[in-house]
Amino acid sequence: MKRPLSFAHITRITQSTMFLPLAPVLLVQARRTARNTPRLDPATGAETGVTTGTEPAFRLLVIGESTAAGVGATAHAEALPGFLADALRRHLRRSVAWSVTGKNGATVRRVITDLVPTSNGSAPDLVVVTVGINDLIRRRPLKRWAADLAELLTALRARYRHAAVLVAGMPPVHRFPAIPQPLRMVLGAQARAMDRIMREVAHEHGAVHVPMDEAMARDRRLFASDGFHPSPAGYRVWAHDLALAISSPAAYAPWPPRPVHPARSAL
């Protein structure tokens, strides 16, 4: 498993003219954070499951990076897929069949090339995407970040034509306990810029963008021991917030959108 931060990746951030005065401090903090952050394994156990409830089951696919892979939890049933399925069961009042395809350290490009073609969600009703933190750490230029997201959503739309797509927003990196200031401020500012782009690209591709509640980051119990990934309690809270958004009728807008014809002028 890769460390969540690396000296090489943070070095690229300090090359920005805006942050040059902070460069010495940022580099020291990046080294220290990479050295001291514990390495956590992805969740284990079954990558599919079905909740109790009435049939037919609502089909859920979670795809993405380390939070899809369940880093910070011991089993997928106690990570985002399992908790989200259970929350949806309560909101939708029917059973939920869930599956997960995640890769720790995956960027959006890696999700496109490696995970979408092999995803094990058979004709899902909903696809939940968790990406961004690795693109942040690797300092993906914002224009390429936008293009990568657009390509990912296009690929998901092509593979799962009848599924709704939800994009989980960037985490509040500016509040991560594992990252010291001012490094946390620098990464947090970039994460917020990426989240704004994520919201715009999702809207353009008929997906639903759900921002992560900053209040989550104020509760240390919602972080795993690395101070970077969610704990099982954090996954549960996050899943609850996503389920509320998914249960909204806006999450199931038709795709592609119907063309809007201008009204004809009266003769």
TrEMBL record:
Keywords: Hydrolase. The keyword Hydrolase applies. One of its GO terms (molecular function) is hydrolase activity. It comes from the Bacteria. Residues 62-237 form the SGNH hydrolase-type esterase domain. This is SGNH/GDSL hydrolase family protein. It comes from Actinomadura fulvescens.
